[in-house]
Design a protein that fits this description.
alpha/beta, Translation, Eukaryotic Peptide Chain Release Factor Subunit 1, Chain A, 3 domains, 60s Ribosomal Protein L30, Chain: A
Length: 364
């Protein structure tokens, strides 16, 4: 098996794949090597571990551990130096049939440098160092509001999460009998300002210390959201994070999704918007001309081999072996490769369809 150089989205899929494997004993091996670390030193350590493995009482476990170590040592012998971002190697018996052995191995170079040197033999593969790389490093705060209610949420990667729903208690415009117009106005304005202060306090509680906060998006009808922003009810630190203010009527949970859609200009570089555009192009092409938009494995592979594919799209949850095969062909043909998640509606629809698809540049 050759070294896989993974993107962040591909690494996320790889982690999910590896989590499926469970050993019947401590026979799954994980090895992490930082960039610049002496490969020969790692080989020597693993050779020593092979000697230790001879003391394992169970014959099948002893053989599985020894065979797995052999696989990793053979892989390492192909390297004079570690890849520029380091590497992670895994090997072990992944057979689902008790008493049978199926030793598989994986070698990857992650999208960011590995900062840990590790060897472990356990019932599960050690994946925490890779999970740190895929951890979300950007969060956008979302607020949709009017004088009656407010919904606070956040955009985490591609997920929209609802965090808090609030109501104001501000009475309707029809005033109670006997109240003068001016007095009623003073009451409602006072209650409205109190509501703004409560919203601001909740935003502060949730986001003030959030180090991953990239920006704040606010949506609502005119003039409510403008009154809230211009009144500077939130701390200066949060005020400086406001990157978009959008006109909209829905201030419920679904309003958060509307706010994200309306903020495409602001979130143009966000993965959720990019993925939506990639998949919208695919589904539009599929609707117009199915022959130019294959989504079955053999059809996609054939189109790639003819050099007919402009863009290859693969779900992170698609079969990794087939995914790597298609990507290898695409790279040889200069085809654009897009990896998408299943965390958006479009992504789930794409995965349910097949998990792969192609937009062709010409017919075959």
């Amino acid at each position: 098996m050759t070294l896989q150089q993974l993107t962040k989205s591909e690494l996320d899929g790889f982690i999910k794949l590896m989590k499926v494997h469970k050993g019947r004993a401590t026979e799954l091996i994980s090895v992490y090597i930082p960039a610049g670390y002496d490969v020969n030193a790692v080989q020597r350590q693993l050779e020593a571990e092979k000697s230790t493995a001879k003391n394992i009482k169970s014959t099948s476990t002893r053989k599985n551990v020894s065979d797995s170590l052999d696989k990793i040592v053979r892989i390492l012998k192909e390297y004079k130096v570690t890849p520029k971002r380091g590497m992670a190697l895994f090997a072990g018996n992944v057979s689902e049939v008790e008493g049978q052995s199926d030793i598989q191995s994986w070698e990857i170079e992650p999208p960011e440098e590995i900062g840990v040197r590790l060897y472990r033999c356990d019932k599960e593969f050690v994946l925490e160092p890779l999970e740190l790389i895929t951890a979300v490093d950007e969060i956008y705060a979302l607020l949709v509001m009017d004088r009656k209610e407010a919904t606070i949420g956040q955009l985490v990667g591609k997920r929209i999460e609802t965090l808090q729903k609030m109501t104001s208690g501000v009475p309707s415009k029809v005033r109670a009998g006997g109240q003068s117009s001016q007095r009623f106005h003073r009451i409602t304005e006072g209650l409205t300002k109190e509501f703004y202060k409560r919203i601001a306090e909740e935003m502060k509680n949730i986001f003030y210390e959030e180090t991953k906060l990239k920006g704040i998006l606010i949506g609502g009808p005119i003039p409510t959201k403008n009154e809230f922003v211009e009144g500077e009810f939130m701390p200066k630190k949060l005020m400086e994070k406001i990157i978009g203010i959008k006109d909209q009527g829905d201030t419920s949970e679904s309003g958060l999704q509307e706010l994200v859609i309306l903020s495409q200009d602001v979130l143009a570089k966000q993965e959720i918007i990019y993925e939506k555009k990639v998949l919208e192009r695919f589904f539009n092409s599929l609707g117009k001309d199915p022959k130019m938009t294959p989504y079955k494995y053999e059809d996609v592979k054939k189109a790639l081999q003819y050099g007919a594919v402009d863009t290859l799209i693969i779900s992170k949850e698609y079969n990794m072996e087939k995914s790597n095969e298609l990507k290898a062909i695409a790279e040889q043909m200069g085809t654009t490769i897009e990896i998408v998640s299943s965390e958006t509606n479009e992504g789930r629809q794409f995965l349910n369809l097949s998990g792969i698809g192609a937009v062709q540049r010409f017919g075959i």
